[in-house]
Design brief:
heterodimer; A: about 90 residues; mainly alpha; F1FO ATP Synthase; B: about 230 residues; 2 strands; about 5% strand
């Protein structure tokens, strides 16, 4: 039985961390779906305001997306620019 | 695996990367289009002049509707930003790295937005009113409000960078995967690359590019207008 080298351990744990960080996307899915559902309700009630509702919905969804983008950036830093491997 | 932009050449220790070169190319194309479409203008527009007038009218309507009719003097900057972002985001169509898949580029654009927001807020509200607005509702909230103001360009730049970089990574995975499948079938020509990546290309390089450019310009407009008119509500 061979022992795990420190490099392999750090790399494996980083990959695991990168995957766990992406759980943060869950909240965005719920939030964006909620916004889209409310937008559909708005369009059904007032079809002539479709353009404005679409614009506001897209901007709101983009703002809601920010936390997920931060999670994604943490994830790609762990995968492609790993800061821990240089500490060994 | 290296995700960063390639370095094309360097002058005296300053590296000129793909991002900078493609940004120059996009700017040159936009300048050339503007010059060609405004040369010998006719009263009844035709050809490229009609197309340019369509774009200009769309931008002026958008700025007028979002920032108010009295603020249409921001339209030239907003239009330039929108066109640059649309072309810069969709460079993936030509198998090149998008300009905005680099944090330096998006952070520079967000920095311009940040300066515009605060310059215009000070210009319309005077320095005293601006500080009063920052220390709203109580003076001890000033540091918290300052952090909130500083976080805005950060989230704006990270949003654009993250969306475009995510698209780049997924396109890279798709191309490498399809190539790997054909290599395992021991066929030297990667025939699976014909047509199969098209929907992904459409989504990431046309839909997402336009959407992210629109969102960036929209948030810029909303926050500039918000900073200028906040005094009306009190």
């Amino acid at each position: 039985m061979s022992l795990v080298t420190p490099e392999a351990f750090v790399l494996g744990m980083s990959a695991l961390g990168a995957a766990i960080v992406m759980i943060g996307i869950l909240g965005i899915g719920i939030g964006q779906g909620f916004a889209a559902g409310k937008a559909v309700e708005g369009v059904a009630r007032q079809p002539e305001a479709q353009g404005d509702i679409l614009k506001v919905m897209l901007v709101g969804q983009a703002v809601a997306e920010t936390t997920g983008i931060f999670a994604f950036i943490v994830s790609i830093v762990l995968l492609f620019a790993n800061p821990f491997i240089n500490m060994l | 695996m290296n995700l960063g932009p390639r370095i094309i050449f360097s002058i005296g220790g300053v590296n000129v990367t793909e991002t900078v070169c493609y940004a120059w190319i996009v700017s040159l194309i936009l300048i050339a289009f503007a010059l060609i479409s405004t040369r010998n203008m006719k009263r009844i527009p035709k050809g490229s002049q009609a197309f340019a007038e369509l774009i200009v009218e769309f931008i002026y309507n958008l700025v007028g509707n979002t920032m108010g009719k009295q603020n249409t003097n921001f339209a030239p900057y907003i239009g330039t930003l929108f066109l640059f972002l649309v072309f810069g985001n969709s460079l993936g169509l030509f198998e090149q790295r998008p300009v905005t898949a680099d944090l330096n580029a998006t952070f520079a654009l967000a920095g311009i937005t940040f300066v515009l927001i605060h310059y215009n807020a000070i210009r319309t509200k005077t320095l005293k009113g601006y500080i009063k607005h920052l220390s709203d509702p109580y003076p001890f909230m000033l540091p918290i409000n300052l952090v909130g103001e500083l976080a805005f360009p950060l989230s704006l730049s990270f949003r654009l960078f993250g969306n475009i970089t995510g698209g780049v990574i997924i396109m890279m995975l798709l191309f490498n995967g399809l190539e790997g499948i054909t290599e395992n079938m021991e066929i030297t020509i990667p025939f699976l690359l014909i047509g199969i990546p098209l929907p992904a290309n459409f989504f990431f390089d046309i839909f997402e590019a336009g959407l992210q450019a629109f969102i960036f310009t929209m948030l810029t407009m909303v926050f500039i207008a918000n900073g200028m008119s906040a005094q009306d509500h009190h």
